[in-house]
């Protein structure tokens, strides 16, 4: 049982962001409450995606709303991602790494297969910003953040902010 009231945004270098999350075993009211809470956290912070570890919960699920609106929130439970195509290197941010925007290399396309909140499995092809958001959120449930993916040069450029976050832990 997840105490949803206690869920808060987690920041690098929190341990929950660095571990591989566990599969969701049952989609019940508790998971539905968690999705509501994750949506609140995402919208409060003006994000377009949020993974459960970013709310302090090590489960394999995330939400995305590229429009940043509650009615557009899509839920991905136990997702799998197959990347495809060429790479793009575009600047990204992450609600769990505040104050850092850095170029990240990702596939231009991907296919996502996941289960929704009603328990239905679905598959979607994605490209552009959507494909990037899916790969970013999937990274979170694998314990990877933009800090792991940024170049050495970017790490040096952002060292002050990263150090500040490390000291706030
Ligand atoms: Ni993120």
Account of the 3D structure:
The protein is built from 5 helices and 5 strands, in the order αβββββαααα. It has 169 residues and is α+β, with helices and mostly antiparallel strands. The protein has helices at 29-44, 128-141, 146-149, 152-157, 159-168, and strands at 49-51, 61-64, 74-92, 102-115, 121-127. Strand 4 (102-115) and strand 5 form a beta hairpin. The radius of gyration is 15 Å and the shape is globular. Strands 1-2-3-4-5 form a 5-stranded antiparallel β-sheet, with helices on both faces. The chain has a single domain (4-168), classed as Alpha-Beta Complex (Peptide Deformylase), CATH 3.90.45.10. 30% of the residues lie in helices and 28% in strands. The longest helix is centred in the first third of the chain and has 16 residues, at 29-44. The mean pLDDT is 97. The two termini are 25 Å apart. Bound molecules: nickel (II) ion.
């Amino acid at each position: 049982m997840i105490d949803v009231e206690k869920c808060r945004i987690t920041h690098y270098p929190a341990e929950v962001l660095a571990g591989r999350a566990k599969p969701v075993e049952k989609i019940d009211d508790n998971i539905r409450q968690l999705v509501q809470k994750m949506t609140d956290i995402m919208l409060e912070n003006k994000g377009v995606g949020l993974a459960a570890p970013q709310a302090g919960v090590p489960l394999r699920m995330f939400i995305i709303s590229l429009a940043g609106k509650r009615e557009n929130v899509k839920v991905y439970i136990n997702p799998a991602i197959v990347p495809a195509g060429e790479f793009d290197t575009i600047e990204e941010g992450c609600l769990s790494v505040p104050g850092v925007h850095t170029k990240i290399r990702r596939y231009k396309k991907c296919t996502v297969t996941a289960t929704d909140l009603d328990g239905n499995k679905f598959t979607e092809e994605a490209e552009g910003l959507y494909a990037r958001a899916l790969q970013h959120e999937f990274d979170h449930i694998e314990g990877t953040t933009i800090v792991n993916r940024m170049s050495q040069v970017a790490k040096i450029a952002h060292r002050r902010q990263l150090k500040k976050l490390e000291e706030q832990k």
